[in-house]
User: Fold this.
Amino acid sequence: MTSKAIKQGEFYELDAKDDLKSSPAYSDDLAPTKIKERTWSIFNIAALWVGMAICVPSYTLGGVLTAYFGLSVTEALVTILVANIILLVPLTLNAYPGTKFGIPFPVVLRSSFGIVGSNIPCLIRGLVACGWFGIQTMFGGLAIHLLFSAFSDSWASLGGVGEVIGFFIFWALQMYVVIRGAESIKWLETLAAPLLLVVSLGLMFWASGKVSFVEVLATPATRPEGASFWGYFFGGLTAMIGFWATLSLNIPDFSRYAKSQKDQVIGQILGLPLTMFFFAALGVVLTAASTTLVGETISDPISLIGKIDSPFWVSIAMVLIIIATISTNTAANIVSPTNDFQNIAPKLINHTRGVLMTGAVGIVLMGWELLKKIGWIVSDVSVESMYTNWLLGYSSLLGPIAGIMIVDYFLIKKQNLDLIALYSSKGDYPAFNPAGLIAFAVPVAVTIASFGVDSLSWFYDYGWFTGAFTGALIYFLVASKQSAANKQPIVSSSAA
Assistant:
């Protein structure tokens, strides 16, 4: 018997037989979800975003925009809101193939980059996620250290060593959640979302008595007097888009479980922009209130709460921060690289091995910080400065991939993918698709050139926008030419 793609309503389901299961590009973990597995509702999708958006880095974004991009507090919050509204475009569009065909991000990329070529953007996306995984695990480890320190002076005396032990405890908790699979993540996000919203509202109410919201919002810009607002705004906007540019690519990893396109679209609209805006606003307010509370300005909520002289409230707060960070990290920074690593060798790397590889790379990338905490090396580089400085950098790499994916699915393939060929090394999809590789290489090359050419500096400064539009345009032109040369569509429809 041969494999076939079966259409049921708006969905396609793959009935894989031995002819496809023997393909080196196929594995059960990367195979399309069955229709019975597509159970995520609007609420589940929205909860996913609430769980991911409420995290320590989101809390600090307002401060990043005011300190590094010269914006006022009000300008910074508006920038965050606008950035996340813009992000809804690639997020919802790139989620479409995942929902319709039940396929994860690496398999979607096989259409535009080729069966083997898909590993190039996959590994770029995966390594960025591993870096964020390490950073978030560092925050989670600090929360665990402060939780134990609230009840034990002996533990508190461990200092940096206690934080490192907390890092590995937190690391193990996350590995356990993700290894258990998508339903475990769905359960965690659904549980965490309402709890985190209630706690955030409570913190905002608590801070209202310590600081004037009007005065905070009236905090002036730090850019040079007379400098144009727009240059700083678009620079900050690009950085804020870079914050979730990762998920705008691998959203099919989650939308493949959605009940319908309507569920994924509405769920993302409800879950992302307002949550990011609110939690960033909370960060600005609590940072302003920190001077009144503890006598110094502290932009990190974990360190701020750790200074409260009440073991009970510190322990409650740290447990909630641990839940918030696990809900963010498991979904945002482990699922994608797990699938990306599996795509390298589907027959050799299964789900569990992909998760452990992600965890191992995360440890390596945070090695310098772990060694610094136990006193083996000395470094002035902080985790906060690291993730602040790379927001622009990696958005320049991810923008072209987003543009290529959208053009490929909606304009070139016209929402038709050949499910069987996507998993076959002998199908209609080549090992390497020149159109995707060229469309990615050109904007990356221009970005690199912009470092040494002042007249091209704008290309890097607005990297996500310039990369996305350049990559999309070049892909459309080259792929259209390929299609015309072949005198047929690049792939056939998956209808069966």
